[in-house]
Amino acid sequence: MSINQSGWRPTSPEANTGNVPASVTGNKALMLEEALIFEIGDSHTTGVDFDTFGSPANAGAQGTKDAARNPGFLLSQENKLGGLLRTAPIGLPGLSEPETVRHYTRLSRQNYGIDLGFFPLGSCTMKHNPRLNEKMARLPGFSDVHPLQPVDTVQGALEVIHQLAHWLVTLTGMTSVAMSPKAGAHGELCGILAIRAALEAKGEGARKIILVPESAHGTNPATAAFAGYSVEDIPATAEGRVDTAALKARLGPDVAGVMITNPNTCGLFERDMREISDAVHAAGGFVYCDGANFNAIVGRVRPGDLGIDAMHINLHKTFSTPHGGGGPGSGPVVFSEALTPYAPLPFVEKQGDQFVLIEEENADEHHAGSFGRMVAFHGQMGMFTRALTYILSHGADGLRQVSEDAVLNANYILRSLDDTLDAPFGPSGPCMHEALFSDSGLATGFSTIDIAKGLIDEGFHPMTMYFPLVVHGAMLVEPTETESKAALDQFIAALRSVAERAKAGDPSLKTAPHFAPRARLDETLAARKPVLVWKDPAPLAQAAE
Amino acid sequence: MSRYFTQDHEWVDVDGDVGTVGISEYAQSQLGDVVFVDVPEAGKTLSKGDEAAVVESVKAASDVYSPVSGTVIEGNAALTDDSSLVNSDAEAAGWFFKLTLSDPSELDSLMDEAAYAAFVEGL
Questions:
Q1: Could A523 and B36 be called an inter-chain contact, meaning their C-beta atoms sit closer than 8 Å?
Q2: How confident is the model at residue B59, as a pLDDT?
Q3: pLDDT, average across residues A6-11
Q4: pLDDT band at residue A543, thresholds of 50, 70 and 90?
Q5: What value does the mean pLDDT take over residues A220-228?
Q6: Of the candidates A362, A390, A418, which is a domain's last residue?
Q7: Chain B closest-CA separation from residue A527 CA (Å)
Q8: Reported pTM
Q9: Do residues A367 and A513 share a domain?
Q10: Which B residues in the span 91-110 are in contact with A, Cβ-Cβ below 8 Å?
């Protein structure tokens, strides 16, 4: 017989009999710790070695030797920097290539994204980004073009912009669309600038007030102020909608327009939208609609039918292009007939069988009133390709199902949790794309932040917190249509468990998260004493050997 | 010396023609941990209701309005170094600025301590 000399035996787990000691490295198996790049790098390591240039600043110790061999270098004609030449390294961290790759890969594993799990941020529409979009956007004919190429060499790219524009105008029932704005708030600014241009053209530039309901997005008042308007709040009703009577009462010759988010941040459809639009128009103003929540109504409601004059569409929300760090965003703005003459350049038009870029040089009288430009070139081409791919792969019927499923999912969350969490607008009827809860009923000392931190331990990105302001301790949950029932059930079970701990006053929830790479951070200390620049704890003598 | 309050939760202590302005204990409790305070410089002229200072907590930034008209004598430099004074001692060491009152009759429109307590009770 042969003897097992290695001593190996298969192991079985034994009962955990005590505290597990912390690991020497700080790593927890696949949860890897990672120091700051300044702490792991040094100024003498490089990923790639180049010939030394001869300056000690550029080449460290080797350069010092070169300079020593050629003492005249620092004074020579080659050195055009005069007294500005660095005499010591600037202290950028140097790492070898594998160290660099590991550094960023390890950091990326501490990230959370839509490809890892459910991302229920309210009013953010964090939906799945279909891989077909990526495949199309990477076709060389789209990905390798330059905005200054002759237009006859980019006819396909221009056709994509033209087709997408057609879809956006059709889905919204509007007259035209400016494709160039680069994100939601940029789109808002575009819309408000068009309103300003239209008012000035009518000789009514003295209108200086923009009305913003409390249920609107936080960016709306910021946009209006940035465009030079004074902002006045319009209260919300007890059921979470715009107080139409209060809004109508405030209309007058000093009001330039209103900015309304529909569906609003309470997750409700503004039923009085048509009545509000008619009243604003009768008073000589314009209606801007924040289209960030368009996912709830796409294919079902055309904002143009509600009397809206301008609305941005977040391609990175409704039309599934990457969102939140994976961007860039893209926020085309659709316009009513009244605002179309003032829309910014450029446009793509089809003339015969050619697609033409309408810019300053060739803009005819149709665009004479244009207020100018939002961007240097034509917008986020990569996002246009992805959004059109999404639209064409869904079709009109598929997009209609998108909003239906998104609303169904949100209502499933609302009604599954309204026995545990307070749903202030639950009695207002079904919600749209997002479910809204308050912190009412939590134990003394417990707030929404504790529930959010508890959700991190459960492996979810927290929902939108403390917004909208009209609800105390608001929790705004938007599931989107891309979550399965199983995923929703798991989230509901997790949120219920965390909420029950908060209602029972579980002290361990006050220190959550416990399983994240970092435990609860001291937000107050971070804000009072922010450390914005890394400082070498023990500076080494510089390379002046 | 007497103390007056505004509906925007500022207080002002008046001693002769000098007023000392801060935010109320109720205001600091609603703001949460204060992390930054910007106080006006001496010499600045303020009208009643003007934005006089800025107070920032972890979650929100708010304007502090001047409860009365006057000329700023001094901003509380201690708040620049330690904004937590607003939380720990809102109605004394956490004062924001002192000013010379230009129209003491404006005080008539403010609340006294009891009226403010009743006002807060009703919020």
A1: no
A2: 74
A3: 84
A4: very low
A5: 96
A6: A390
A7: 6
A8: 0.87
A9: no
A10: none
Residue B17, chain A, CB below 8 Å: the answer is no
Q: Is the predicted pLDDT of residue A75 greater than 60, yes or no?
A: no
Nearest CA in chain B to A523: B58
Q: Are residues A342 and A406 in the same domain?
A: no
Measured between alpha carbons, how far is A56 from A44 in angstroms, rounded to an integer?
12
B35 close contact with A: CB closer than 8 A: yes
> Is A92 among the domain residues?
yes
Q: Tell me if residue B53 falls in helix, strand or coil.
A: strand
Find all residues with CB under 8 Å of A116, minimum gap 6, and list them: none
Secondary structure letter of residue A383 according to DSSP: H
Buried b (16+ CB within 10 A) or exposed e, A329-354: bbbbbbbbeebbbbbbbbbbbeeeee
Kindly provide the ipTM of the predicted complex, given to two decimals.
0.77
Note whether A524 contacts B59, CB cutoff 8 Å: no
Check B83 against A524: CB less than 8 A apart.
no
Average pLDDT over residues A525-536: 87
Structural domain for A69, as ranges = 37-108
d(CA A28, CA A26): 7
**CB B101, CB B18: distance < 8 Å:** yes
B83 touches chain A (CB under 8 A): yes
DSSP, residue by residue, A327-350: ------EEE-TTTGGGPPBPEEEE
The average pLDDT across A421-444 equals 95
- Inspect the interface and report whether the beta carbons of A466 and B83 lie closer than 8 Å: no
* pLDDT over threshold 90, residue A70: no
Q: How many helices (H) and strands (E) does chain B have?
A: 4, 9
A466 to B59: CB separation less than 8 angstroms, yes or no: yes
Question: Does residue A407 register a pLDDT over 50?
Answer: yes
pLDDT over threshold 70, residue A72: no
SS3 of A519, please?
coil
Which residue does chain A place closest to B80, by CA atoms? Answer: A528
Q: Domain check: are A279 and A338 in the same one?
A: yes
Cβ–Cβ of B35/A527 closer than 8 Å?
A: yes
Q: Are residues A473 and A495 in the same domain?
A: yes
Contact A524 B36 (CB under 8 A): no
- In chain B, residues with a C-beta closer than 8 Å to the C-beta of A527 are 33, 35-36, 56, 58
- A421 shares a domain with A352: no
Q: What are phi and psi of A185, to 5 degrees?
A: -65, -30
A377 touches chain B (CB under 8 A): no
Residues A209 and A286 placed together within one structural domain of the fold: yes
* d(CA A23, nearest CA chain B) in Å: 34
Cα–Cα distance list, B36 to A463, A465, B41, B61, B75 (Å): 27, 22, 16, 9, 14
* pLDDT single digits (tens) A309-354: 999 999 999 999 998 766 799 999 999 999 999 999 999 999 999 9
pLDDT in tens, B66-114: 999 999 999 999 998 899 999 999 999 999 999 999 999 999 999 999 9
Q: Are residues A521 and A412 in the same domain?
A: yes
Q: Nearest-CA distance from B34 to chain A in Å?
A: 8
* Cβ–Cβ below 8 Å for B35 and A524: yes
Q: Is A523 in contact with B83 (Cβ distance < 8 A)? A: no
In B, minimum Cα distance to A525 occurs at B35
Does residue A215 surpass a pLDDT of 90? Answer: no
What amino acid is encoded at A329 in this protein? G
**Whether A522 contacts chain B with CB within 8 A:** no
